[in-house]
Specification:
9 strands; 130 residues; binds iron/sulfur cluster; three-stranded antiparallel β-sheet; Alpha-Beta Plaits; alpha+beta; 26% strand
Length: 130
């Protein structure tokens, strides 16, 4: 098992610095891999990354919500979405995303597709053989 970065990730980057086994990678190219990803073969499930995420985007794989209920105002960031997001990461560097949607209060989304997205980045994508 491993931890998973879901589409609530807005590329803040804070999780990368705390991972003891350096298994978190920014998706690249961003147009194809919009979030950051955890290598499921390397993650030791220590949980250190979870509290670092300002968007609460990281879950143990078994706990990724299929029915995530938004408080309102959160963004999801995944392929196929077309909304724009502008913000800053944990170093104050600009983050621009064009694959987002802002959620309304009470809106329910399935985040479990992120489990495959994390695995695919490392088995088929540019994370392979990193
Ligand atoms: S801290 Fe959260 S938003 Fe930032 S890269 Fe990690 S998972 Fe994504
Ligand atoms: S749970 Fe631990 S090992 Fe896994 S990605 Fe997070 S910090 Fe890294």
């Amino acid at each position: 098992m491993a931890h998973v970065i879901t589409s609530l990730c807005l590329r803040d980057g804070g999780c990368v610095d705390v991972c003891p086994v350096e298994c978190i990678t920014p998706g690249n190219p961003q147009e194809s891999y919009p979030t950051f990803y955890i290598d499921p073969d390397t993650c030791i499930d220590c949980g250190a990354c979870v509290p670092e995420c300002p968007y609460n985007a990281i879950f143990p794989a078994d706990d990724v919500p299929a029915n995530f209920k938004a408080r309102g105002g959160e963004f999801v960031n995944e392929l196929g979405l077309t909304g724009n997001y502008s913000g800053t990461d944990h170093n104050g560097k600009a983050v621009q995303l064009s694959s987002t949607k802002q959620l309304a209060a009470g809106e329910v989304v399935d985040l479990t597709g992120s489990i495959k997205a994390n695995a695919d980045f490392y088995t088929k994508g540019p994370g392979y053989g990193k």
